[in-house]
Amino acid sequence: MKWLTALVVVLGVASLGTAIYVVLANRDPAPADMRACLREQRIDLARSSESLTAVRADASVGALRVVRRWDWGRTSGVLLAGPRRDATLLALWNENTPSLAGADAGRRIYETPGRFPVVAVQAGGGARLLGCAEQIG
User: Fold this and answer.
1) Which residues on neighbouring strands pair with residue 22, listed in sequence order?
2) Does the structure show a pLDDT above 70 at 21?
3) What's phi and psi for 100, nearest 5 deg?
């Protein structure tokens, strides 16, 4: 009877340990941290192409260029700007979304911003977007 009780306790502890491991291993704080920072900076998320009008001209001709890239482990980020730098675009991607590592990242984001965990645009140099990205990681 003692060995049966011990077996139940060991199995319970093992199950609890496995559950904790699964939760912690699948945790990806970068998108949530970025959303919180953007909310604090009063920058709205872009979920449709219509909300990206500030970069429409540059995105439609493929003129958005990468200014900066980040790798936060499971999530990566990219900051893009057009030649005039009148608007800056920030997007995050992970293994569940299309990659933004290629040269066509601006067009890919513009066409389907809702597919990415975070897409935001800021007029001007994008100092607030850059600040949020620098805080993560």
Assistant:
1) none
2) no
3) -110, 25
**Strand partners of residue 69:** 78
Given a cut of 50, whether residue 24 has pLDDT beyond it is: no
Which pLDDT tens digit goes with each residue over 107-123? 899 999 999 999 999 98
Using a cut of 0.70, tell me whether the model's pTM lies above it.
Answer: yes
